[in-house]
Design a protein that fits this description.
- This protein is α+β, with helices and mostly antiparallel strands.
- The protein has one domain: Diaminopimelate Epimerase, Chain A, domain 1.
- It contains 6 helices and 6 strands; from the N terminus they run H-H-E-H-E-H-E-E-H-E-E-H.
- It starts with a helix and ends with a helix.
Length: about 150
Amino acid sequence: MNITVLHHADADGFGLAGEAIKAFRDEQIKSAMKNVRMMRFTTSLNALAGVEDPLDQVVHYDVPVVNASDNISELGNKMCKTYPWAPFSVSYCDRKDMRSWNLRSIGDFDVSEVAKVFGGGGHKNAAGFSTELGWPMMHTEGFLSAFEEAAK
């Protein structure tokens, strides 16, 4: 881009364009928030620590979840603020051959530890993992049974 053009550009025009983009993004987030539902993520204490133990304790996390492909970070933060009692929030999106899961937290809860259990990774407040399409609904019965059996 020509520097001379930028030098003479109308700064107010850039500001108005930025405001319009932000307003559009905020409307997308507001619309997506109408579709949030609660979901139970189930794992185990030792799985979170990376240890296999048949006598492990099952851990359930009731978290807000939404199907979204845009504004993932902003939407995750909005869900965390809207549902402050939940340890983290989740968004997912179906891609061509997989389902992509994004976890967000605010504060001390380390979502990367949860993501690792499901084969993913990330950092303390933002992490993710991928699964086959349809997960967890297609595996719910066996998935929960395995953890409940291990907890006996």
